[in-house]
TrEMBL record:
Residue intervals of the PRD domain: 167-271, 281-387
Protein name: Transcriptional antiterminator
PANTHER family noted in UniProt: CRYPTIC BETA-GLUCOSIDE BGL OPERON ANTITERMINATOR, TRANSCRIPTIONAL REGULATOR MANR
Pfam families: HTH_11 (PF08279), Mga (PF05043), PRD (PF00874), PTS_EIIA_2 (PF00359)
Entries under InterPro entries matching the protein: BglG_antiterminators, HTH_11, Mga_HTH, PRD, PRD_sf, PTrfase/Anion_transptr, PTS_EIIA_type-2_dom, WH-like_DNA-bd_sf
UniProt keyword Cell cycle, yes or no: no
Organism per entry: Robertmurraya siralis
Record-linked PROSITE patterns: PRD_2, PTS_EIIA_TYPE_2
PTS EIIA type-2 domain residues: 490-631
Keyword field: Activator, Repeat, Transcription, Transcription regulation
GO annotation, biological process: regulation of DNA-templated transcription
Length: 631
């Protein structure tokens, strides 16, 4: 690219100070969109000057680059490519994909290599037939992969109290939270922080709508709702809000709020509102519409959402959305742009759902309404993400007076960070119907049960807590090892695995291994120097068996591991080692890599494990040993 053309291209983007589509740039410079993409690739060859997204191209400053990760980050590019291939089962033309993602064909080819490593554990593979890319594998595996991709998108905090406060600065949500918790406690009701933030956002939005004369005015019969702790608490909270904000909670608003609080896992009433009982409180047409929408999401995106709590909230939202659309009530969502920019795949799901509603109900849905649907979808997946870190429990206890409720409350209070009670049963007859349960806590003796279980007293004693904690620790260790196993193929590379390479010094090994990482596209040319600087500060050898040389910076092009295994020890500074592990870490992949690397280091920390690994004859033998040690 000639310098004058390069300068003109950059100056044009600078003058726009906004996203420019490939088509508009092609028209201005009188070239093809493919040539525009070529210009961008050439300008970005040495450093990132122009960023790209589905919106087009934009000139960026160095400071802005780190914030624009959706398509720059290699790991995110891989997820987007996989998502596109899942949705296009017939295959995708690599040049069309290149145009859609504003990437060069060579970049996509490199990303496919990484993608195939990522999806190996799902028994999937991307194959190329001429210019067509096809994701080969079973539908069940594709569903699992799509869920994984979306869960990764919600690895950031999707909903926090600060996010609610920032979106609605005119409301003191921190004080409001304390007031609501105080009311719930008076009714002996418990809400965890995640659900509380969800309730707060719902209430702030409701209050804001009422203040702007946008109350829900549907025909409802509040007498349908049985009087219980939840209805009393909901009415008390509504009364408090009326006084605090000088508004009127009409019967429809109270009805909706009571249903929200009564959803299955919102409060510790595990026998209350579910997807099956919802039909007694909400017109059947809304329940059926919600079921149909979620079925279409499943068919289109291979994502199955079968959670009662989500279904209740989603159905209530769809019902209210249809009402607002019918009466053309405006709803402003201050989270619209944040959701759209930060969670593109979740927003895409919301757009798909909105399009289906428009088609089936013959209404128009505005962008702010789409964002509210995205919020519900994102909240569901964030909850799924958080549940991944917890042990999912079922409690079996007879419903004798308030004994069961007290048992559950005590367990929630003591283990709120480590377990999630998702089912409460009166006896063992329903155990066979339970799915995705890690642990059963029972006050009744169980016989022949395959799922891990703990027998406890109806009124918990300290020994019961200790037994539960031991089982939780054991299950957490198993989960952690399972996750590490999932990433073995992603971060280990047969081309970076060597046996019995004998060199004269640790510096020689660092030079040799960093050069290999550079040649394979993992690091920049000066990476070895950075590793040497770290090594001179203090030796990376530990346990007298293993050295883990690495850079002080997470500035690698991509994350990977270069490994040498030796039959006889070699000198590493003042130590002797038989395993040398050089790691390269890309900043964007840090979150995925950290737990994996910790698991690998835990294995290498024990001499008996090192002794087994150094006996590996080749790469496959080594990987089998690693898998064995993780069991």
């Amino acid at each position: 690219m000639k310098n004058d053309r390069r300068e003109a291209f950059i100056q044009y983007l600078a003058s726009k100070n906004d996203w420019c589509t490939a088509t508009s740039l092609a028209n201005y410079f009188k070239v093809s969109t493919r040539t525009i993409r070529k210009y961008v690739n050439e300008i970005n060859q040495d450093q990132l000057v122009i960023t790209s997204s589905p919106q087009g191209y934009q000139l960026v400053t160095k400071g802005e680059v780190s914030n624009n990760n959706d398509y720059i980050s290699p790991v995110n590019r891989v997820k987007v490519i996989l998502k596109e291939l899942i949705l296009h089962s017939e295959g995708l033309n690599i040049f069309d994909l290149s145009d859609k993602l504003f990437l060069s064909v060579s970049s996509i080819e490199n990303d496919i290599v990484q993608a195939n490593k990522m999806i190996k554990s799902y028994h999937l593979k991307i194959r190329r037939k001429k210019d067509t890319l096809i994701l080969v594998g079973g539908e069940r595996e594709k569903r699992r992969l799509m869920s994984f991709i979306i869960l990764q998108e919600t690895s950031k905090e999707f909903l926090s109290l600060k996010a609610v406060h920032d979106s609605f600065p005119h409301y003191d949500v921190f004080t409001l939270k304390d007031e609501i918790v105080s009311i719930l406690e008076k009714f002996n009701l418990y809400v965890n922080d995640y659900i509380m933030n969800n309730i707060l956002l719902h209430l702030v939005i409701t209050v804001d709508r009422i203040k702007n004369n946008n109350s829900v005015l549907q025909s409802t019969d509040i007498n349908k709702l049985k009087s219980n702790l939840e209805t009393e608490a909901a009415n008390k909270i509504a009364d408090m809000l009326e006084v605090k904000y000088d508004i009127q909670f009409n019967e429809s608003e109270r009805y909706n709020f009571i249903l929200l609080l009564s959803s299955k896992t919102t409060l510790l009433n595990y026998q209350s509102l579910t997807s099956d009982s919802l039909i007694h409180y909400v017109d059947e047409q809304y329940v059926n519409l919600s079921k149909k929408l979620l079925q279409q999401v499943h068919e289109r995106y291979f994502i199955e959402i079968n959670d009662d709590e989500f279904f209740v909230k989603f159905t209530l939202h769809i019902r209210n959305l249809l009402f607002r659309a019918k009466y053309e009530q405006m709803v402003k969502n201050p989270l619209t742009y944040e959701l759209k920019d930060s969670y593109p795949l979740i927003y895409e799901l919301a757009v798909f759902i909105s399009n289906q509603i428009q088609f089936m109900e013959n209404i128009h849905i505005k962008e702010d309404e789409i964002s509210y649907i995205a919020f519900h979808i994102g909240s569901y997946f964030e909850r799924r993400k958080k549940l991944e870190k917890k042990i999912l429990c079922a409690v079996i206890s007879p419903n004798y007076y308030d004994m069961r409720l007290q048992l559950v409350q005590k367990l929630e209070k003591r283990f709120h960070d480590s377990i999630e009670i998702i089912k409460v049963l009166s006896d063992a007859s329903e155990i066979s119907s339970l799915k995705d349960i890690d642990l059963i806590i029972s006050t009744l003796p169980l016989k022949g049960e395959q799922t891990p279980s703990v027998f406890v007293h109806p009124y918990l004693i300290e020994k019961d807590y200790e037994y539960i904690q031991l089982q939780v620790n054991k299950l957490n260790e198993q989960k952690k090892n399972q996750k590490v196993k999932q990433y073995l193929d992603l971060y280990f590379d047969e081309d970076l695995f060597m046996k019995n390479v004998y060199l004269e010094s640790d510096e020689a090994y660092i030079s040799f291994m960093s050069k290999l990482l550079y040649e394979k596209g993992y690091v920049t040319k000066d990476y070895g120097q950075s590793v040497l600087e770290r090594e001179r500060m203090s030796s990376t050898a530990f346990n007298n068996n293993v050295a883990v040389p690495h850079s002080m910076h997470m500035d690698a092009i991509k994350t990977g591991i270069c490994m040498i295994i030796l039959d006889r020890p070699v000198n590493w500074g003042k130590e002797k080692v038989q395993i040398i592990v050089m790691i390269s870490i890309n900043k964007q992949q840090r979150e995925l890599f950290s737990p994996f690397f910790e698991g690998v280091i835990n294995i290498l920390s024990e001499w008996k494990n090192v002794h087994e690994l150094i006996k590996a004859k080749d790469y496959d033998d080594f990987m089998e040993s690693m898998m064995r040690l993780l069991n």
